[in-house]
UniProtKB/TrEMBL annotation:
SUPFAM superfamilies per record: Cupredoxins (SSF49503), Cytochrome c (SSF46626)
Name of this chain's protein: Copper-containing nitrite reductase
Top-rank taxon, per record: Bacteria
Residues binding Cu cation: H103, H108, H143, C144, H152, M157, H298
GO CC annotation, single: periplasmic space
Subunit-structure text: Homotrimer.
Length: 473
């Protein structure tokens, strides 16, 4: 009763100001990724006023790498808009006065020429207004469609608009907004400093970065998505492109339900869902056990070498029946196995001070060592020896150069604990090797040795793989 009266009152108030429509007027709630506006509780259509701004701004695309993004609302992807089937939208697009380019918006939720593109074409320092009615429920991509269209999209100008069906969406515990995009920079992946857009690479579809939410690490570490065991999660997952389709997968999860291409067709028990450029899906799943669930584009080099990787941290009690964890581990080294090498083509870092060496070395560590030796340098008992306060390391830093450059195998003792395994030779430049060892030796209570690229070069020329005594292999 109360709610109805209130709704009627709102309707009357606004009927005065908006003669054309009987509908109550409300302001849209817009959110930046990965957040989603709350579910719509209205049981009737409204006139929804949307105020969105295009902004061109420099942001980090990766640690130490800057890029000039063009955005809807200051983020990549742009702000999430949530409306209801039958709503009439009054869309105000403002282009910030500091912009160098005109911009517009093509919403795939619009029935009309260009999806609103021509009507919303806006020069810097201007605002355009147009109206549309949301006839079809679904999750729709919006993007800039100003020439050269590919360039505006490649610079990050896309986002999602959700048109909830009249009956609403089933209730879930968590909703998140993620969008993939491919990026083309003058420098290679990870090359430091400001990187300009590269049109040639974009035309060749030769992406340097493939990203979730506009940056390497936008959804990892303390920016990971979160959920609790037993909760249901709904991902509104879009693909801005401009070029690449996404093979979207969550490692260790199965989607209970996917709205294929974000339409009304439901698929169930899905491992990997295709999301076309300029398309979307909604994926729902219940999280059954705790842990880190990694979102990837399963075109997998994109995940591990171009940035298409995000995380969902699930908290709560274990269920050993659903997932036991490792129940045993023994070393398996077949006859004839040899030290292999992991290639690496990261750009080399020329450091001019110990501080620089530490900074670059930390990045090399995160990219090349951390998977085995762990972020805290403590390793994993029985598998990877500690580098933190390691007597093996501190006794002979020159030997550590050999370990990284040439690899190591056979039984060793580190701080009293025995290891008998293989460390592959790391194909790092002399600079990267010097930096990472300087970082390691000056962190976690180690002895403070500084390693120079020259010393590394010397060991590269004169050293060889370390096969420790007593090795049966
Ligand atoms: Cu634009």
């Amino acid at each position: 009763m109360k709610l109805k009266t209130l709704v009627a009152a709102i309707g009357m108030t606004f009927a005065l100001s908006v003669q054309a429509s009987e509908l109550p007027v409300i302001d849209a709630v817009l959110t930046s990724p990965p957040m989603v506006p709350p579910p719509i509780s209205r049981d009737h259509a409204a006139k929804v006023v949307v105020k969105m701004e295009t902004v061109e701004k420099v942001m980090e695309i990766a640690d130490g790498v800057e890029y000039m993004f063009w955005t809807f609302g200051g983020s990549v992807p742009g702000q999430f808009l949530r409306i209801r089937e039958g709503d009439e939208v009054e869309f105000h697009l403002s282009n910030h006065p500091s912009s160098k380019m005109p911009h517009n918006i093509d919403l795939h939720a619009v029935n009309g020429p260009g999806g609103g593109a021509a009507a919303s074409f806006t020069a810097p320092g201007h605002t355009s207004v147009f109206n549309f009615k949301a006839l079809h429920p679904g999750l729709y991509v919006y993007h800039c469609a100003t020439a050269p269209v590919g360039m505006h999209i490649a610079n990050g100008m896309y986002g999602l608009v959700l048109v909830e069906p009249k009956e609403g969406l089933p209730k879930v515990d968590k909703e998140y907004y993620v969008m993939q995009g491919d990026f083309y920079t003058k420098g290679a992946y990870g090359e430091q400093g400001f990187q300009a857009f590269d049109m040639d690479k974009a035309i060749k579809e030769d992406a340097d970065y493939v990203l979730f939410n506009g940056a390497v690490g936008a959804l990892t570490g303390d920016k990971a998505l979160t959920a609790n065991v037993g909760e249901t999660v709904r991902l509104f997952m879009g693909n801005g492109g401009p070029n690449l389709a996404s093979s979207f997968h969550v490692i260790g999860e199965i989607f209970d339900k996917v709205n294929v291409e974000a339409g009304t067709l439901e698929n169930h028990n899905v491992q990997t869902s295709l999301i076309p450029a300029g398309g979307a899906i909604t994926a729902e799943f219940k999280v059954d056990v705790p842990g880190n669930f990694i979102m990837v584009d399963h075109s997998i080099f994109r995940a591990f070498n171009k940035g298409a990787l995000g995380m969902i941290n699930v908290d709560g009690p274990e269920d050993k029946v659903i997932y036991s964890g490792k129940v045993s581990e023994t070393v398996y080294l077949p006859e004839g196995s040899a030290v292999q090498s992991i290639p690496n083509n990261r750009p080399k870092q020329a450091a001019s001070s110990k501080e620089d060496q530490m900074l670059y070395g930390k990045r090399v560590y995160e990219a090349n060592c951390q998977a085995c030796h762990q972020a805290d340098g403590k390793g994993i008992p029985g598998a990877f020896p500690p580098l933190a306060k390691s007597d093996f390391l501190n006794d002979d830093p020159t030997r550590a150069i050999d370990v990284v450059v040439h690899g190591l195998k056979g039984p060793i003792k580190v701080n009293g604990a025995a290891f008998d395994s293989i460390m592959p030779a790391m194909a790092l430049s002399d600079e990267d090797t010097a930096n990472v060892l300087t970082y390691v030796l000056n962190t976690w209570d180690n002895n403070g040795t500084v390693v120079s690229p020259k010393e590394v070069k010397k060991r590269r020329d004169s050293g060889k793989p370390l096969v420790m005594e007593g090795s049966a292999h």
